[in-house]
């Protein structure tokens, strides 16, 4: 699999060589710019595509032929949506994963406790989750992830071991921060696009079409529209013989220290 170190190891000397050949052998700059363009394209792809494992290895699906999948919810806990979602999951006897934002836990401690008490898995999804999150240096990111970890641990009494990067974006500083905290990075294989696609039927069509053993689906529990989507999707999956399990079970990993 491509990773940033190997790609840089090849492309940086190559670009230096092409530049040298331009100045000393009058080689056209075209070759240098083509190499630069290819390098930038690979880095951008690796940064925005969590499944590429480019900066950081992420677990994005279970390796199984069993009809088992995991559903995960990012960006909560949300006082409006999360309680209704928990009611629905309880009614259907489904275990799910919740990647919580540290700052959202403040004032919603009982809700976080409820998520844990009902058997769901809680992971770290950063403290701030700001738009500029990925542009901060490693020391700042380390502090942010540690603050979220403390917020979770103080409420549920367990230290999370799993982290999901905001927006699924990874960078070299984030990779350093995550490694120093020994987090496992959890991605997804099916992105529901519940925050961008406005038509519920289109979302349902996409996610039903992606149903496959080992799939990890990404939703957001700050979006009330997911309630109907989850109800219909989980009925569909269960009717087809699928079991919906915690992502830790699907991946065979520990969720807490
Ligand atoms: Zn998020």
Provide structural commentary.
- The chain is built from 10 helices and 9 strands.
- The two termini are 29 Å apart.
- Helix 1 (4-25) runs antiparallel to helix 2 (29-48) and helix 3 (81-92) runs parallel beside helix 9 (226-239).
- It has 257 residues and is α/β, with parallel strands linked by helices.
- The mean pLDDT is 96.
- It is globular and about 75 Å long.
- Strands 2, 3, 4, 7, 8 and 9 form a 6-stranded parallel β-sheet that branches. Strands 1-6-5 form a 3-stranded parallel β-sheet, with no helix packed on it.
- The chain has 2 domains: 4-48; 58-251, TIM Barrel.
- It has helices at 4-25, 29-48, 81-92, 102-105, 109-117, 138-156, 172-180, 200-209, 226-239, 247-251; strands at residues 58-59, 68-74, 97-100, 121-124, 162-163, 184-186, 190-191, 216-220, 243-244.
Q: What's the number of structural domains?
A: 2
CATH architecture of the largest domain: Alpha-Beta Barrel
Structural class: alpha/beta
Give the low-confidence spans: none
Taken from the alpha-carbon principal axes, the silhouette is: globular
* Sheet of most strands: 6 strands, parallel
Short key terms for the protein model shown above:
about 260 residues, alpha/beta, TIM Barrel, 6-stranded parallel sheet, 3-stranded parallel sheet, 10 helices, 9 strands, binds zinc ion
């Amino acid at each position: 699999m491509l990773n940033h170190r190997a790609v840089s190891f090849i492309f940086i000397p190559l670009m230096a060589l092409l530049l040298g050949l331009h100045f000393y052998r009058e080689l056209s700059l075209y070759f240098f710019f083509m190499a630069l363009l290819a390098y930038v394209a690979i880095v951008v792809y690796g940064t925005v595509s969590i499944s590429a494992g480019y900066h950081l290895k992420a677990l994005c699906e279970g390796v199984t032929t069993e009809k088992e999948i995991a559903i995960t919810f990012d960006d909560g806990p949300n006082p409006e949506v999360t309680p209704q979602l928990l009611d629905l999951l309880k009614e259907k006897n489904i275990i799910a994963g919740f990647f919580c934002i540290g700052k959202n836990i403040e004032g919603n401690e009982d809700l976080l406790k409820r998520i844990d008490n009902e058997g769901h898995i809680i992971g770290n999804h950063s403290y701030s989750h700001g738009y500029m999150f990925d542009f901060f240096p490693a020391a700042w990111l380390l502090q942010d992830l540690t603050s979220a970890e403390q917020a979770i641990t103080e409420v549920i009494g367990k230290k999370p071991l799993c982290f999901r990067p905001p927006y699924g974006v990874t960078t070299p500083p984030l990779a350093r921060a995550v490694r120093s905290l020994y987090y496992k990075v959890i991605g997804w294989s099916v992105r529901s696009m519940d925050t961008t696609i406005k038509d519920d039927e289109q979302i349902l069509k996409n996610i039903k079409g992606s149903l496959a053993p080992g799939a990890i689906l990404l939703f957001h529990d700050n979006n009330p529209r997911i309630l109907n989507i989850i109800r219909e999707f989980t009925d569909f999956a269960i009717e087809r013989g699928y079991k919906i399990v915690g992502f830790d079970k699907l991946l065979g990993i520990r969720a807490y220290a």
